[in-house]
Fold this protein.
Amino acid sequence: MSRCVLNTVPETGAALADWQRATLGLGGNIGDPRTAMAAALQALDGRDDCRVRAVSRLYRTPPWGKIDQADFFNSCALIETRLSPKDLLDLCLSIERGMKRVRLERWGPRTIDIDLLTYGDCQVHEEGLDVPHPRMVERGFVLMPLADIAPELMVLGKTVSAWLDQADTVGIVVADEATDWWRG
């Protein structure tokens, strides 16, 4: 089910030239996650159909779900895209695969993870795609960096800041204050 009106090409379902705002959550805890996330953001920003508009500070966060692993590095990005939600998700998954992301266990260690958090004011519930991301409002490691770039963004009837006020943020620390950490 999709509650979102997009201008699409009927034959292909591809989005037309209208730019849509979307937010992404990025993370990783294997190898050099900072470099992997920077490369992913640069890949997105280098496309004609995506542009990175804002990136949060970089955070070091304790593992969530499966806790017997190394800390993660996390960040969020605000982008504009001409891609549909599904095409944007497919692009993010393609970038992950290109960086050798392997999905062996849920919430397990990873080189990179790129989650589509929000897409405009759309609600999408399709096979393999839920927007807003179904667990984002429960995760301090998503809400803290998202609040850096979009504190007033409405998600499921509340602002990101309001969700953050309710979230568990114990152990989450800023690893880099700069918001241009991904550029070079």
In short: The first strand starts at residue 2 and ends at 3. Residues 8-12 have pLDDT under 50 and may be disordered. Residues 85-98 form the longest helix (14 residues). The domain at 2-131 is CATH 3.30.70.560 (Alpha-Beta Plaits).
